[in-house]
Amino acid sequence: MPEIKESNTLDQVHLESMRQVQTPRLGRQLTYWLGGILLAIILSLFLPWTQNIRSTGSLTALTPQDRPQTVEAIIAGRIEKWYVMEGALVKRGDTIVSISEVKEKYLDPNLLARIEEQVEAKQGSALANQDKVKAMQEQIQALRQGLVFSLQKARNKVQQSRLKLQSDSMDVVAQRTDLSIAEAQFARQQKLYEEGLKSLTELEQRRLKLQETQAKLLSGINKFDASRAELQNARTELNSLQAEYADKIAKAEAELNSTRSYVFSTQAEVSKLQNEFSSTKVRNQYYHILAPQDGFLVKTLKAGIGETIKEGEAVATIMPENPQMAAELLIDPLDLPLLERGDHMRLQFEGWPALVFSGWPGASFGTFGGRVAVIDNAGTNGKYRILVVPDTEHEPWPNALRVGSGVNGWAMLKTVPIWYEIWRQLNNFPPDYTGKTDSGAKGKEAAKDKGTVEY
Q1: Confidence (pLDDT) at 377
Q2: What's the rounded mean pLDDT across residues 90-94?
Q3: What is the per-residue pLDDT for 350?
Q4: Of 67, 285, 314, 331, which has the fewest Cβ atoms less than 10 A away?
Q5: Is residue 245 part of a domain?
Q6: What is the pLDDT of residue 98?
Q7: What is the CATH number of the domain that holds 178?
């Protein structure tokens, strides 16, 4: 019996030692778990991962007219009445606020009527001067015709004087001949008287005849000199007549040109007054500031009644009613060459729950599809702006989106193993270019040529 007990004791001691040197069960389980996790990690490194370009930005409108805009006062004025409240929907042409005039020049309530009276007065003055121009033109025409008649009359007088001079010259020649005959007869009569053949009476009669002939010659010479002087006067009058009428015509033409200049000046003043009348009439339309398009009055930038505003100063902000939404995202210059118009993107909007796995777009939840529509050619602060519009091939964007909300975007690129993506990220290498088919490239080139992208 003692031997059996001793043998059992030895077996128990041996088994206890064996248990002490064996690996604990918990350690084996931890080893199995760690090995499995490591194997899973190694295997997961070979899973596919979609490279992407991440960007952030905000929602905006694609076209400028759909973006928030300020309503400005075209003229300076004082606020008289507001017609809408903030948040109200306004239609194009609705009155937002009315203002009154503050410039001294336009304070007269009858300004348009007074300007119109000035225009009518100036137009009447212009018409009167135009009539004066016509009268002066007729006067110049009459002077020209009078010059023709006067010249003809003066020429006739010169011709008449010339003929009279010729007649008087012939009379002088005849009287000289008569004088020669009378002198010869008197000499013969005197010789006969000395010879006693003629009486003294007959000699005296012949002397008387000689004296009469001499008197006639002297009278003829005087008439000849008078006719010659009359001819000279007629010629002088003919020459002075041209100068006299030329002076009258020159004065009339100078006055005509002066009147025409006044007419043109008056017409210019009429045009200026008409321009002022039209400008004032148009200015009266700007006393009511109207909504430029349908939209919501987001905020009034001026408050109260009686506040003065300047020309071009904003009074309110309007958000168009149905803008064409687009996501405005900022891209790093390193990633910009990888994007083209028409590339697909996934977007996450603030306020919409989402579970995003950027490398596995199919497993993401709450993201929306988009397509690149615009890529800026110039950067700002080291970033380049792109505009992303809804992708018609995917679910539509929520209707409750508002301009200004934050948005995150991912541009989907080439699918690579996870280990390659980790290696790329550690080395700060850019993503790989996606493999694009020729048809897709041609389509994008055509879209670039047109400057638009179909979406």
Answers
A1: 84
A2: 90
A3: 85
A4: 285
A5: yes
A6: 92
A7: 1.10.287.620
The amino acid present at 257, given as its one-letter code, is N
393 and 276 share a domain? no
Distance, in Å, from the CA atom of 208 to the CA atom of 190, rounded to the nearest integer, reads 13
What is the phi/psi pair of residue 136, to 5°? -70, -35
* Last residue in a domain, options 260, 285, 310: 285
- Of 17-26, 192-201, 227-236, where does mean pLDDT reach its minimum? 17-26
Q: Are residues 249 and 386 in the same domain?
A: no
Q: Which domain holds residue 429?
A: 49-65+323-450
pLDDT tens sequence across 242-279: 788 888 888 888 888 888 888 888 888 889 988 988 88
Higher per-residue pLDDT: 168 or 272 = 272
In a domain, 127, yes or no: yes
Does residue 144 belong to any structural domain of this protein? yes
Are residues 191 and 267 both part of a single domain?
Answer: yes
For residue 375, the domain's CATH number is 2.40.30.170
What gap in Å lies between CA 184 and CA 53, rounded to an integer? Answer: 149
Same domain, 209 and 305: no
Pair 405, 429 in one domain: yes
Q: Which of 356, 358, 344, 330 is nearest to 434 (CA)?
A: 344
Residues 265, 404 within the same domain: no
Confidence of residue 440 (pLDDT cuts 50, 70, 90): very low
Overall domain count for the chain:
4
Identify whether residues 265 and 291 lie together within a single domain: no
pLDDT at 153 over 60: yes
Is residue 359 very low, low, confident or very high in pLDDT (cuts 50, 70, 90)? low
State phi, psi for 155 to the nearest 5 degrees. -65, -40
